[in-house]
Design brief:
With 268 residues, the chain is α/β, with parallel strands linked by helices. The protein is 42% helix and 13% strand. It folds into two domains: 230 residues, TIM Barrel, CATH 3.20.20.60; 28 residues. The chain has an eight-stranded parallel β-barrel, surrounded by seven helices. Helix 2 packs across helix 4, helix 5 packs across helix 6 and helix 8 packs parallel to helix 9. The radius of gyration is 20 Å and the shape is globular. The site of 3-methyl-2-oxobutanoic acid has 12 residues, from strand 6.
């Protein structure tokens, strides 16, 4: 698949062929260009935008306008990766007409190729079916669903006991039947993801769900070490850009104050 545009059928094929799928978040054009060049399969403009970029306490305040603004920027940086827009809280929960309208905005205005919804209640299943019916691909999201933060009582691992695990298994099957093309499993025990993944034809994408999903997703700023000092256990930091940035900015300050910058070589 090197160099070629990633499509939804490609992702299902990857699952069938036992090839792992990669997904990362992006909120701006330069990051999108890096992910695209690295041939990440799926780029998600997550509503994590609210917490990691906009400084909100949780994802609930994020608006459609904010999501579209960032989705358009990411679109401009991508050639190859599949672009998924995350529908923010209360942009789809009210009912089918508003959900279709807002999902349509992600595709028409934002240039996304699919949207992601959290949960699998009766209403979400109905909305998912309606979107799929009119050609809007939907990615599901189960387990630790951040838009349910108040109901969950914080960001806690879900599906730990038998009853809760059974519910997530049923929800995964219901979402597949409703037509989702992929499913994010967030913050669930590895054993649960291991049970769900082979039951589904669609790929599962794990975040804090162990190694047995069909692919893995992380928030880019977490893996780059740009988010705060503390990150969840499932985050592996592949770089420490926060430290590097701080060092560079401090050096700039010191060199300006001591009149070491700019030297002749930086002058016209
Ligand atoms: O909002 C987000 O970034 C997400 C991913 C972590 C899956 O939903």
């Amino acid at each position: 698949m090197a160099g070629r545009k990633v499509t939804i059928p490609d992702l299902v094929k990857k699952k069938q062929d036992g090839q792992k799928i990669t997904m990362l978040t992006a909120y701006d054009c330069p990051t999108a260009k890096v992910l695209d060049e690295a041939e990440i399969d799926i780029v998600l403009v997550g509503d994590s935008l609210g917490m990691v970029v906009l400084g909100y306490e949780n994802t609930l305040p994020v608006t459609m306008d904010e999501m579209l603004h960032h989705t358009k920027a990411v679109r401009r940086g991508l050639k190859r990766s599949l672009l998924v827009g995350d529908m923010p809280f209360m942009s789809y929960q009210l009912g089918v007409p508003e959900a279709l309208y807002n999902a349509g905005r992600f595709l028409k205005e934002g240039g996304a190729e699919a949207v992601k919804l959290e949960g699998a209640g009766t209403r979400i299943l109905e909305i998912t079916r309606a979107m799929v019916e009119i050609g809007i691909p939907v990615m599901g999201h189960l387990g630790l669903t951040p838009q349910f933060v108040h109901q969950m009582g914080g960001y806690r691992v879900q599906g730990r006991n038998e009853e809760a695990a059974k519910l997530i298994v049923d929800q995964a099957q219901n979402l597949e039947a409703a037509g989702v093309f992929a499913l994010v499993l967030e913050g669930v025990p590895p054993n649960l993801a291991k049970v769900i993944t082979p039951q589904l034809k669609i790929p599962t994408l794990g975040i804090g769900a162990g190694p047995d999903c069909d692919g893995q997703v992380l928030v880019s700023l977490d893996l780059l070490g740009m988010s705060g000092a503390q990150s969840p256990k499932f985050v592996k930091r592949y770089a420490n850009l926060r430290e590097e940035s701080l060092k560079a900015v401090r050096q700039f300050k010191q060199e300006v104050e001591s009149q070491q910058f700019p030297t002749q070589e930086y002058c016209y």
